[in-house]
Amino acid sequence: MTRTTDRIQTLDLTDLARRIKDEALRLGFQAAHIGMADTESHRADYEAWLATGHHGTMDWMTRNMDKRFDGAELHPGTLRAISVRLDYLPVNAADMEATLEDPSIGYVSRYALGRDYHKLMRKRLTQLGRTIGDWVGEHNFRAFVDSAPVMERQLAEQSGMGWRGKHSLLLNPKAGSWFFLGELFTDLPLPVDPPFETDHCGSCTSCQTVCPTDAIVADGVVDARRCISYLTIEHAGPIPEHLRKPMGNRIYGCDDCQLYCPFNRFSETTREADFEPRQALDHMPLTTLIDWNEAEFLSKTEGSAIRRIGHEQWQRNLAVALGNAPTTNEVVEALRRARTRAGDLVREHIDWALAQHGYSEKS
Predict the structure, then answer these.
(1) Residue 341 annotated in ligand binding
(2) DSSP structure class, residue 234
(3) Which is nearest to 339 in space by CA: 319, 355, 322?
(4) Distance separating alpha carbons of residues 150 and 122, to the nearest angstrom
(5) Was 6 annotated as part of a binding site?
């Protein structure tokens, strides 16, 4: 069935919006909000952030600027952005603070312990779009989950899902920030939800204070070049030496700004069994992890977001963490074993790590 302008005029769009939100919940999302797909009002702040170089080596963030701020440029015909929330904090993961306080264990960001969320969310968003089509006839839609230049936090904020905290992440007063965001762009002229206009952070600076590398340089402004998540995931080259010690045992991402945020006292754990830890990555010894060869790494991270960084960056991150671990024969020997099969990038980090334990590559 082809939807026409006349057909739109016969729809009860308010009721349709309610049905869409109900269907999103049925599909497993924890919330759905509808907003405008235009984020032009955020362009100036974004361009100022780029001008300072805070994006580091993420050159893709400088491209497709018109598409980034206008949903209709990104997906022709788009009138609304339906933002959805999916909680991801695992139920059975090892205690975060205890893991960070044990320098012999690798810390993996909570979102990456289980299945990669991208395909799961995109599949559900696409199903939501198809279900809407069953109700109203053909409509033009497209699902996004980190797959295009979409200002997801700004869209979610505009649709009333929360506010952007001082750590730049979206915060919800009843759900904290342990959640993924996704979007369904549509050409349906749905009624929009009022924006979330109240910033509840107030005078709290917990996220800024606890950041190990002082990456939150102003309220809502993160210098990616100092951020451990950027350094361990997005950055492919050598990690600056002055940031290696503050990284501690964080080998993939960093959660400190969320872990110590007061609003995450209200967070609920995920309902998704697929987000539970795989391969015991919530409490795995660093010496075990660095012994994985590339084939083991690819096998053990199959279906995980960790796989995207590749074995070399994984080894680089582990070398830094082992440099920060207590000096033991096991740690030194693990580093030496890894060095025998390492390329230049990893070898340089292993040599730094050995030096932290009083050894040189010739020892």
Answers:
(1) no
(2) I
(3) 319
(4) 14
(5) no
Burial (Cβ within 10 Å: 0-12, 13-18, ≥19) of residue 241: exposed
The 10s digit of each residue's pLDDT in 314-363 is 999 999 999 999 999 999 999 999 999 999 999 999 999 999 999 987 54
Q: Is 226 annotated as belonging to a binding site?
A: no
Residue 217 DSSP SS3:
strand
3-state secondary structure (DSSP) of residue 318:
helix
Say if residue 257 carries a ligand binding annotation: yes
Residue of 15, 45, 70, 146 marked active site? 146
Is 68 marked as a binding-site residue?
yes
131: buried, middle or exposed (CB in 10 Å: 19+, 13-18, 0-12)?
middle
pLDDT at 7 > cutoff 90 = no
Please confirm, yes or no, whether 146 is among the known catalytic residues. yes
Q: Is the pLDDT of residue 85 over 60?
A: yes
Q: List, as one string, the DSSP characters of 322-357.
A: HHTS---HHHHHHHHHHHHT--HHHHHHHHHHHHHT
Indicate the helix (H) or strand (E) that contains 183. strand 179-186
Predicted confidence band of residue 1 (pLDDT cuts 50, 70, 90)? very low
